[in-house]
């Protein structure tokens, strides 16, 4: 490896990995803020959260990688330009293409890696991450019994506490409704005071009750006692043990999420698209066959049809018989038949629209496996020449420019997908719209960087303004 390659790669790799980690951290922070109420307040252990953040770190890589390549390319060539190293290299007869070659090689390898990642690793991370997030969201928060409010998160029990002391263990005026047998409020326990604590590694909750009564309706009290009477048991001390399994993390079958487009690889998406195309064809053919029974003739001119009715003697007797045998006229029957056809057509239309929407989403996801990989090369094509033009290193101007182009890429991607789903744009064009537009912008930046343009220098615009003023002065003098 030549010294120039080492120089450029050393300037590129440091900001690249730093930017990648920062962007992943920002997206994880967004996840935490968005799902804060669902994630925390649950005694799930640190390992569950580490696992969740690991999966979502992988999920954010398709967004973080292009931005990292763009920003690090801008910083690399901006720093080389700011320190006049780029000028020195050009003066030595080294072309801008030769200077960009090491980073271009790295970008190609990153694009190939991104395609593999999008096709293999990302579907796995999506199904693992989103299913785990769903499990965490559906897990109940830890035990939090408040004063004067019935607490019903423990399955089979309703608990009300009159007073709760600061130690969170000592309780006063406790009421417990036992619903474990699903027989209503037949079993009630009242206690003057109680102690609350957990046992067996927080698997069970124990209420140690003092000075109370246990009321049980319809209890077996012997044959001499009316079974509808109430059995009352007084106690000085008693215990009620409740399972805390409801607060455990319950794993959901991941196959419930496997049907979504982001959980599928390219081969699976292609199979899904073929299945949807077959379903759309079946719906169309089925509708045509069902509609065929409602029409007498097809592709027949109106005049020929009327002539056929005039020449056919068997039509009128049957119509007259229909008048006599039926309370409704043939016109009413035809109207009802038309309404049935409209209803069937509307149902089939809704079904077809649903299938076509799913087909568009499936095809878009298939294309995005490639567009996300190509976006790395597109971001390099923008970042490298633009950094050579701006000639500013550090995290100042490059960050602003990189974020601006990243937002532009995101907006174009969303708009292209939306228009493709709505049918306003050819699906392939909608999927590749962002890359096409940004590639054109990158090609323009590359062109002006080869010409050593001073597009982003204030002196350039001063010179242009002076020339315009000079021409305007000459024009006025000529007049």
Notes on the structure:
It is a single chain. The protein has 479 residues and is an alpha+beta fold. Among the domains are: 91 residues, no CATH class; 109 residues. Helices cover 63% and strands 12% of the residues. It has a 5-stranded antiparallel β-sheet, with no helix packed on it. Strand 1 and strand 2 form a beta hairpin. About 2% of the residues have low confidence.
Secondary structure elements and pairings:
Layout: H1 3-34, H2 36-39, H3 46-82, H4 85-91, H5 96-138, E1 157-164, E2 170-178, E3 187-199, E4 204-217, E5 230-243, H6 266-292, H7 302-311, H8 315-325, H9 330-390, H10 397-422, H11 427-450, H12 458-478
Antiparallel strand pairs: 1-2, 2-3, 3-4, 4-5
Task: Fill in the keyword field for this structure.
alpha+beta, five-stranded antiparallel beta sheet, 5 strands, 479 residues
